[in-house]
Amino acid sequence: MKLTIKKSVIYLLGLAMLGICVTLIQKTNLGMSSWDAFYRNLYEGIPLEYKYLNPIIALILIPIAYLIQKKRWSLWMLFPLVISFYIGVIIDLLLLVIPSVVGAGLFWNILYLVLAMIICAIGLNFVVFCQYPLPALDELCYGIGAALKSTYGKGKLIGEILALVLAIISGVIFSHYEQYFFIGPTTIIFALGIGKMIDVFKKPVFKLLEVFDAN
Fold first, then answer.
1. Domain that holds residue 128
2. Are 14 and 137 contacting, i.e. CB atoms less than 8 angstroms apart?
3. Structural domain count of the chain
4. pTM for this structure?
């Protein structure tokens, strides 16, 4: 892993995009992605702000991700905690400024969802390009893909299905029945589509970033 100013800028932008994605989805009435639904159930049920909730979940997921990949444990394992805090701060701030489209009609809700998926796929490819530590849940998904000798996108699909189960369990624990555990059309669309979208955007995004990083 080689630290450079340009890659650090790309990395921070990519992580910020993940925060934008979560916020856009929360501002719709279409439900949430599997991981975000799981986090939202905890966020509403405990309650705990994202800047604290994200690092706590990261502390659980990172050791699992390292075990799956048979990676050597090091102090870099703790870096996703910092990443999670950063993304959590971005989400908390954007929730205050990005307008809700819950009552704005289906077109605007779908537009937010499509933008969220595109931004998420591009952001994750930004992060992977830098070869810096991944956010905890993405490190887990990347590990799943590597363990299956498949792509990051396939690992993301499996990770989303796992998160759907966790969202249902946490929703039952906190009795979020009226909110349907924050699960909706987005949950299925995101779970089935985000992995493929990551793989589709990988080549053009990497080409663009290689040019930027070389100049």
1. 5-214
2. no
3. 1
4. 0.79
